[in-house]
Design brief:
The chain has 64 residues and is mainly alpha-helical. Helices cover 59% and strands 0% of the residues. It contains 3 helices and no strands. The N and C termini lie far apart (33 Å).
Length: 64
Amino acid sequence: MDKIFYNEGSAARLGWTPEWFGCKKFNHNLITSIEKFQKDHSIVADGLCGPSTYRRIYNERVAN
């Protein structure tokens, strides 16, 4: 699976940006940042911002 391609599609569907994970572009740094976020939140660290990861980061952003 092309993780960059997946994350670009996920962002287009769900409305998130790489900045949510402290990155500027859809690249391998973003994948690493997503994996770190996932590990820190006990989510399977696959580097993909799917529905579970999106809900978690979205809720954190709304709370702040």
